Description:
By secondary structure, the chain is α/β, with parallel strands linked by helices.
Amino acid sequence: MSVPGFFARRRLTIGLVVWFILSNLFLSFWGTSLATTVQAAPLNASPSNINSLTANNAPAPLAPPDFFGMVGRDPWYDFNTDPTNPGKPNKAFQESMSQQMSMVGARWVRLEFHADARPGAKGGFIDYQKYDSFINEVAPRYNLKVLALLGADIVIAKNPDDYELAYNRLNDPPDQSDGSNPYIRAFVDRVKEIGDHYGDKIAAFEILNEANNWYGFRAKAENVGILTGLTYARVKPARPATKFLLGATIATGDPRLDHVSYLQGIYNSEAIKNYKESGYHYEDNLTLLMG
């Protein structure tokens, strides 16, 4: 071993030891200073002070009490999943889910309706036994308002003569004076059917979801306007307390999706403008749900 190499390694070792000692001294001093700063903070900056808040000195809430909602598992999925109750809703799961949502302060729960296929059932059918217990019993028990998403799955094209009811046929040209096509009419009929079945147990309907890019399919803004306007006109008169929301769009920043211009296209569509000018609407505007 050469002497110069030995001394070089020793100097390196001593340097590392000195650096380690100095860095720890610095961190110790910085940590002590930080702790002193935290301890010297005013009492009203402490989270524990929240217990002293009263109705007179509490800060104003950022949103109404019932603003918070959560997406729940659709009852359609958990039907027939309880081995102790085959062929029935999984009420144990529904109770547990609703209880936990309520405990964290949720006041809304969103669920989606799905049609099932059956020979002879044009556009499929809604099996209400999959939804009844949750909407009629469980959700009200935990003070949860139901937001029903009515999207591409409420009308399905599984039967040979249902070719006009595939979701992409939403873009078909109109064949009636109201601007509708077979798919739009089937969709509106299905929404009315669901509304008639549940009445005020459903607090809001969300019409379509991610219509600007649903698995690669882009619904025409004009046709979405027609579908939304006709749905509102057909269902709202019998459900004056029920809210109608336009479903969320995909907003990824991809300029090809351009969700802002897409929404503007819906609101500026001839169908929506004509509907609003008719004076028939029950609200000033269709409510917008951004997501």
